[in-house]
Amino acid sequence: MRRLLTSLAIVCALLAVTPVAADAASNADAQAAIADCNDHQALTQHYSAATLRTALAIMPAAVREYSNCYDVIEKQLLAEVGTSSAGSGTTTSSSSGSVLPTWLIIVIVILALAALTFGALAIRRRRVEGPGGPGTPDAPQAPDSPRAPESPQAPDDPGPPDDPSGSGPADGA
Predict the structure, then answer these.
(1) Per-residue pLDDT tens over the stretch 55-102
(2) One domain for residues 77 and 103
(3) What pLDDT band is residue 105 in, cutting at 50, 70 and 90?
(4) Residue 84 burial (C-beta neighbours within 10 Å; 0-12, 13-18, 19+)
(5) What is the per-residue pLDDT across 11-40, written as a single tens digit (0 to 9) for each?
(6) Distance from first CA to last CA of the chain, Å, rounded?
(7) Residue 34: exposed, middle, or buried by beta-carbon count in 10 A (0-12, 13-18, 19+)?
(8) CA 134 to CA 120: how far, in whole Å?
(9) Is residue 160 one of the residues assigned to a domain?
(10) Are residues 17 and 73 in the same domain?
(11) What is the dihedral sign for C-alpha 127, 131, 134, 140?
């Protein structure tokens, strides 16, 4: 029984180490592909598709930006695979994305538009009601509110001075 447990422990340890060793070997091959491209501005050896994918994934930013290695390795990968698929997961765009997710940008824009709308409505209301607000004596009355009766005109209005009809209060009648 003790032998069985020892054998099982050894097999488990070997299985646990194998993916790590394979990953390290894959990264070493990818590093070699990056170095090959960086040294010669082309790939001088044949690399597998998995190695080229790993090389694209772990390529340093300086090499990606200041050399043509990303394009060279991607071109070799597409030739290796045989077709250019739209969903390959790699992009050749050099533009950077936004830090904020798209949905958050949309929410921020909607909130900003709502704030502008409510601000404009508040300014409009203040102009209509006046600076003192509704109900203050110096505030002009709103168009919907009942108006105070207008004062009647004085009856002793002489009218224009050159009235040809002569009917005015100055006639002495």
Answers:
(1) 999 999 988 899 999 999 999 899 888 755 545 555 555 455 678 889
(2) no
(3) very high
(4) exposed
(5) 666 666 555 444 455 588 889 999 999 898
(6) 145
(7) buried
(8) 18
(9) no
(10) yes
(11) negative
The answer to whether 63 and 69 have CB atoms below 8 angstroms apart is: yes
pTM of the model: 0.36
**Per-residue pLDDT for 107 more than 90?**
yes
37 lies in the same domain as 64: yes
Amino acid at 51: T
Q: What tokens appear for 113 in the block? A: 């538009």
Range of the domain at 126: 98-135
3-state SS of 77-110?
A: HHHHHCCCCCCCCCCCCCCCCCCCCHHHHHHHHH
Q: 33 and 51 in contact (C-beta within 8 Å)?
A: yes
The answer to whether residue 165 is domain-embedded is no
